[in-house]
Amino acid sequence: MPRLQLGRVALRRHRDRAVRSAGGSVSDTPLIRAAEARDVGAILALMRELAEFEKLTHLFVATEADLADALFGERPAAEALVAEHNGAIVAYALFFHNYSTFVGRRGLYLEDLYVQPSQRGTGLGTAMLRHLAALAVERRCGRFEWSVLDWNQPAIDFYEKMGATVLPEWRIVRVTGDALETLAGH
């Protein structure tokens, strides 16, 4: 059984309809598909680009082995979509399920959405978010959530235009490294 419930046919139909209505050619449009093991290196390279954009390369320590295990290991922790254009991976979305005790359902949490600068403004980010939203609905998720850096106003504007609400009253709480070890009592 494929890990993504919406397959390539549904993705192609969405892409083809959007491209034709815009007067474009389907062959020039990126194909959004479920990531495969062969994509790990390309996804990791895009993850590094995202870290550079967010000015967080000093925190980036992920390896191909880490990502391969997270996506395709014995107990996958996440899933990913990629967008392929002219044989190259130009965007990715990495996501996983969480659970809301208030809603009483699992949710879909988008860890990363990254589109290379050359592909921005083409509708690719919108198409990937729409696909993930459809996946959340199909999987009966009560929420589709993600975080955005407070200084990334273009992304905030884009998300709000898509119908998302930025929750100013919530803050991310994180424990990592030595603090995690201390909290664990080690």
From TrEMBL:
<dbReference type="InterPro" id="IPR000182">
    <property type="entry name" value="GNAT_dom"/>
</dbReference>
<comment type="similarity">
    <text>Belongs to the acetyltransferase family.</text>
</comment>
<dbReference type="Pfam" id="PF00583">
    <property type="entry name" value="Acetyltransf_1"/>
</dbReference>
<dbReference type="GO" id="GO:0008080">
    <property type="term" value="F:N-acetyltransferase activity"/>
</dbReference>
<dbReference type="InterPro" id="IPR016181">
    <property type="entry name" value="Acyl_CoA_acyltransferase"/>
</dbReference>
<keyword id="KW-0808">Transferase</keyword>
<keyword id="KW-0012">Acyltransferase</keyword>
<protein>
    <recommendedName>
        <fullName>N-acetyltransferase domain-containing protein</fullName>
    </recommendedName>
</protein>
<feature type="domain" description="N-acetyltransferase">
    <location>
        <begin position="30"/>
        <end position="178"/>
    </location>
</feature>
<dbReference type="InterPro" id="IPR051016">
    <property type="entry name" value="Diverse_Substrate_AcTransf"/>
</dbReference>
